[in-house]
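From the methods appendix. Each design record in this collection lists the tokenized structure first, followed by the designed amino acid sequence. Records were kept in a plain field format so they could be parsed without special tools. The example shown here is representative of the layout used throughout.

RECORD:
FOLD TOKENS (414 positions):
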């Protein structure tokens, strides 16, 4: 049996990247993050325990591997200053500047591990805003980082990927540095896309099919595969039982499925070996958060896919002062991929209102939109779970990247 490629996951968070790589046939050797709540989730769902600590203070771990034997090093250094929101926040704090804030340089710790292990390949992920970030001399951060990576002996490509194009029912654009030290051309991830924008409204409406009609082939990451229309919010969520903020019918929380899977994606998300045992599995993390009556009324008024800024609301139903808050309400569109899932969800769910029910999305629902399957459990408080999901790399996107690297580089090396 061929040896599984080995990887380590730096800044691993809850383990979205790790899950995707495990699903694409890799073996995890080590993972690290500095958040103790994240460790609870990672350890619960993976066979190895995450190392809790600050990567800047931990020496490179001894993994029983010689230099150049590690197949893949992967991670997403948390760089809030590269996001447009982060720049504004940090510049507003007296004595701090976005271009010199130390969190901008956590990627250097990632590159230190690249230099130490000299892995065959590595992948570094970050927010889309990194593409426009500049240093004090006006040089693009992306160009500087790519040059530093190449100085370590790697061929590097920088690619902006939308998770929706890889089966994730969510629009989520992220930057990926994909590199190898063997002179191979790095995978062009556009050629590994499995999904696309629907050609017409009929294609959107036809997406909600039964499992038997689809044949259960999802996901199927093959180079230049025939692309299907994007998976949508309806494809991802509408089999999950209804809930209400307070009540008995519908209940506030439920731990069992009421209906069988109704789409290919739902069947995959439940991870059932056969379609007949759908009612024998437990449903986790499906609990409605509380809402006040004003928010519930606004949720009810909004049409599917419609969003309102606070200032757009009639004065007599304004929930907050418009000179202080610029938050939005948005009811997700069932026939589109969702908006980008964000960590702000731990504060409120106003941007992620259920398309058919007057409430915000549950932990299980946003996990599905991030492509965490239902057997990936979040054994932490709801606020921590929302934050972990919002900061994650979608496992399906990680699986696509891992599959491409494995087939185009690692399998060739043997």
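DESIGN:
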């Amino acid at each position: 049996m061929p040896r599984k490629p080995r990887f380590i996951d730096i800044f691993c968070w809850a383990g979205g990247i790790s899950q995707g790589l495990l699903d694409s046939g890799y073996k995890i050797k080590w993972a690290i993050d500095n958040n103790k709540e994240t460790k609870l989730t990672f350890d619960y769902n993976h066979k190895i325990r995450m190392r809790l600590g600050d990567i800047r203070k931990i020496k490179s771990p001894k993994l029983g591997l010689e230099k150049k034997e590690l197949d893949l090093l992967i991670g997403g250094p948390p760089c809030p200053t590269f996001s447009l929101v982060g720049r504004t926040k940090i510049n507003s704090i007296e004595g701090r500047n976005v271009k010199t804030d130390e969190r901008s340089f956590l990627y250097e710790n990632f590159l230190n591990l690249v230099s130490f292990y000299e892995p065959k390949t590595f992948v570094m992920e970050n927010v889309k805003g990194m593409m426009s970030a500049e240093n004090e001399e006006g040089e693009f951060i992306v160009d500087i980082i790519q040059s530093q990576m190449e100085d370590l002996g790697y061929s590097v490509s920088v690619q902006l990927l939308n998770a929706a194009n890889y089966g994730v029912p969510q629009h989520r654009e992220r930057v990926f540095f994909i590199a190898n030290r063997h002179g191979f051309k790095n995978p062009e991830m556009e050629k590994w896309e499995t999904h696309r924008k629907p050609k017409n409204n009929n294609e959107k409406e036809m997406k909600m099919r039964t499992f038997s009609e689809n044949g259960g082939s999802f996901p199927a990451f093959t180079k230049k595969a025939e692309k299907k229309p994007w998976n949508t919010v309806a494809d991802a969520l509408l089999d999950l039982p209804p809930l209400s903020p307070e009540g008995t019918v519908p209940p506030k929380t439920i731990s069992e499925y009421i209906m069988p899977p109704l789409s290919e994606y739902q069947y995959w998300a439940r991870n059932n070996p056969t379609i007949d045992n759908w009612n024998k599995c437990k449903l986790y993390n499906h609990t409605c958060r509380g809402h006040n009556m004003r928010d519930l009324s606004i949720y009810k008024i909004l049409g599917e896919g419609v969003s309102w800024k606070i200032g757009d609301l009639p004065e007599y139903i304004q929930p907050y002062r418009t000179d202080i808050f610029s938050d939005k309400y948005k009811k997700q569109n069932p026939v589109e991929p969702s908006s980008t899932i964000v960590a702000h969800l731990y504060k409120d769910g106003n941007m992620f209102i259920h398309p058919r029910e007057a409430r915000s999305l549950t932990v299980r629902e946003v996990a599905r939109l991030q492509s965490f399957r239902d057997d990936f459990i979040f054994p932490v408080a709801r606020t921590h779970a929302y934050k972990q999901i919002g900061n994650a790399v979608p496992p399906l996107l990680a699986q696509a990247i891992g599959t491409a690297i494995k087939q185009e580089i690692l399998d060739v090396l043997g």
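APPENDIX NOTE: The first helix runs from residue 16 to 23.
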